[in-house]
Design goal:
The chain is α+β, with helices and mostly antiparallel strands. Helix content is 65%, strand content 11%.
């Protein structure tokens, strides 16, 4: 009897992973059915003004998300337990891989990444259903219905063309592991944040389609679009920053942005979302630019879908492209064409019916925001052209070309410079009719300090770099201008200290968020200009005891020894870095070999010295007479830390603004009662 119980227990243990995977597969299919119900019930509910059917549609949205949670958890379980009977796990995991990267392997493949996309998509629909109590009933019902249509499209693609639960008839003993470049903490969190930003735009898209069907775009609509855009924008900011940080220290190139096509694919939705945030303010406050705001809302998610196509289709060559499948990329292109094409066709039909807002003077806050939008739209078009032109040229002539930093420096940078000049002035202008002279009087201190910073950089930093010094002046202008805006709101030096403090404490969170976003951009500009303008690089083949000179620094290679990691073998160099006779740090870069797959990666050593980075890379061993030598590269990246702190401040500003709910809820209740 005891032997039989043990046998039954062993059989049950073997069956458990299979059952969990099958539950995940069933949940994925059920989510598709519930998304279909969500779309149909929402549409019928709006036509018949049925509260019951609307509630059923909302329940279907919540159910679809719950099913995707179960499906995603089942796939993650398969990765954690190394269930190689699942084709996706066998292709992207290995028993020797650390637990964090087995978990990250869940979304490291084409199939897993699409499942994550669907999870975020249904999660957004469920969020509208759960927290949108103050939305106008008709707008909410249609938004959930459109979100269900998007769910149908992407879930059908996942179920029928990219199913992560496909089984193998003969499971291998061991998996092929995950790409070593993806086995990194930043890459474990980068895709979820990026997808949250991408798919967060789907709600804005659904709001826009719903508004076009309703034929009404007003302040209440704009006030609800802003928080969803802000949340997606903040997540996208964090996701892009994590990706840039990963490229910075994982690829060993000493840089953080290369205008890579995949980088551009994530940057374009961010630019459009930034324009949408500013345009929605005009629609909310003044009732103007309603058609343009709807257009941007549609474009934001369209560019997100374009990014998904470019990354996964294989049409672009990129160090960032990992989940590539050209065949399924064609289906993604079809989804993009049908979804975006239908939405913009609806826009062309219904946009002329939208109510036009009030007039405003050429010098006003409205005009400043319009100019802001023009510059951001032009910048997006520039990035789009630089990304797609090589594809169009190759398709037309068969000639393969690349568009790199020189093109973007000549086209994109001037547009951003103009935007940087504009930003501090915009919040100080009055609505409808502004006083430009008064704004300049309030910003003259910021202008003087900015010019002084630029001149100081040109005069005292060697070698002299004119363009980098101008960039320093721009960054200082943004930072000081942001502080001036706060000073104006609190009337510093124009009233008592107690009154200024009372005003400061009473500032709405939205004002703090805007200030932090603009200030963070200035911090980023300072870091980017310093790092690119005064970066130093040195490389040399060193034997043990060899010396590498890098400006006023020098490094000595003390030893290179073998180390064994959880799923790799590595050569680890130990160096000492000196400034003059003083040791400042002891970098230990590695060169890793992953036996599974036979891939080699460089693990960079970064010494953080204040806001500066001493960046060291250990290259391959080279044959030499006598003692072996290793190629050692080192970079001095001044103010590099600000490149990543700046976007962090911007994202924090977005989160703080997102927490300011008072006015949104008030308008939502008014709109609902009016409906």
């Amino acid at each position: 009897m005891a032997r039989r119980r043990r046998a039954d227990a062993e059989l049950s243990e073997r069956r458990r992973p299979a059952m969990i995977v099958e539950i995940g597969s069933f949940s994925l299919a059920l989510a598709l059915a519930l998304s279909l119900a969500q779309a149909v019930l929402g549409g019928v509910a709006r036509m018949r003004r049925s509260v019951v059917l609307a509630g059923a549609g909302q329940g279907a949205a919540l159910g679809a998300f719950a099913c995707l949670v179960v499906a995603f958890a089942a796939l993650m379980y398969a990765f954690v337990t190394s269930d190689f009977s699942v084709s996706n796990v066998a292709a992207n995991s290995h028993t020797a891989k650390p637990l964090l990267y087995r978990v990250a392997g869940t979304w490291g493949s084409h199939e897993g990444s699409m499942l994550l996309w669907c999870l975020a998509l249904t999660g957004c629909g469920a969020a509208v259903a759960a927290v949108g109590r103050d939305l106008p009933a008709g707008l909410k019902t249609l938004t959930i219905s459109v979100q269900g249509v998007l769910g149908i499209v992407f879930l059908a693609y996942t179920v029928f063309a990219s199913n992560p639960f496909v089984r193998l008839l003969q499971p291998p003993v061991e998996g092929r592991s995950l790409n070593p470049l993806l086995q990194d903490p930043a890459l474990a969190f980068h895709p979820p944040m990026l997808y949250l930003g991408y798919v967060g735009m789907s709600v804005v898209f659904s709001f826009a389609v719903a508004a076009l069907i309703e034929g009404r775009v007003d302040a209440a609509w704009a006030r609800w679009v802003r928080p969803w855009t802000l949340g997606a924008w903040s997540a996208l900011t964090v996701g892009i920053t994590l990706g840039a940080f990963w490229a910075y220290y994982e690829l060993g190139w000493g840089g953080w942005w290369f205008w890579d096509p995949v980088e551009n694919a994530s940057f374009m939705p961010w630019l459009i979302a930034t324009a949408l945030l500013h345009s929605a303010i005009v629609t909310e406050k003044r009732g103007a630019l309603s058609g343009w705001t709807v257009f941007l809302a549609l474009a934001a998610f369209t560019f997100s879908m374009l990014g998904a196509f470019l990354v996964r289709s294989g049409v672009l060559t990129s160090v960032h492209a990992f989940a590539v499948d050209p065949t399924r990329g064609v289906l993604l292109l079809a989804i993009l064409g049908i979804t975006a094409g239908s939405a913009f066709a609806l826009f062309a039909w219904r946009a002329p019916l939208l109510k036009q807002g009030g007039v405003f003077a050429p010098i006003s806050r409205e005009s400043a925001l319009v100019l802001n939008n023009i510059l951001l739209a032009a910048a997006t078009a520039t990035v789009l052209l630089g990304t797609l032109y090589p594809l169009m040229r190759e398709a037309a002539t068969g000639e393969a070309i690349s568009v790199g930093p020189p093109f973007f420096n000549l086209t994109f940078t001037p547009l951003m410079a103009a935007l940087a000049i504009l930003l501090p002035a915009g919040p100080l202008l009055a609505w409808k009719r502004g006083d430009l002279r008064g704004v300049m009087q309030r910003l003259w201190v910021a202008a003087v300090i900015a010019v002084a910073c630029g001149l100081a950089a040109f005069a005292f930093i060697s070698p002299r770099k004119a363009f980098a010094s101008v960039g320093v002046a721009m960054g200082a202008w943004l930072v000081i201008g942001s502080l001036v805006e706060i000073a104006e709101r609190t009337r510093v030096f124009r009233t008592s200290a107690g009154e200024s403090w009372r005003r400061l404490v009473g500032l709405p969170r939205g004002a703090w968020g805007m200030t932090l976003a603009h200030l963070g951009l200035g911090v980023f500009v300072l870091g980017a200009c310093f790092e690119t303008g005064w970066k130093q690089e040195a490389a040399e083949a060193l034997a043990v005891g060899g010396r590498l000179n890098l400006g006023e620094y020098h490094l000595i290679l003390d030893e290179v020894r073998g180390v064994e990691g959880p799923n790799y073998d590595a050569e680890r160099g130990k160096l000492r870095a000196f400034k003059g006779d003083r040791q400042i740090c002891a970098p230990m870069p590695e060169r890793r070999l992953y036996p599974t797959g036979g891939q080699t990666t460089s693990e960079v050593a970064i010494c953080t010295l204040g806001i500066n980075h001493l960046y060291v890379v250990l290259g391959e061993r080279r044959p030499a007479e006598g003692a072996p030598v290793w190629l050692v590269r080192a970079y001095w990246n001044p103010w590099a830390l600000l490149i990543f702190i700046g976007p962090g401040i911007m994202a924090l500003g977005g989160v703080i603004s997102l927490s300011d709910r008072r006015l949104r809820l008030a308008v939502g209740r008014k709109a609902e009662s009016a409906a």
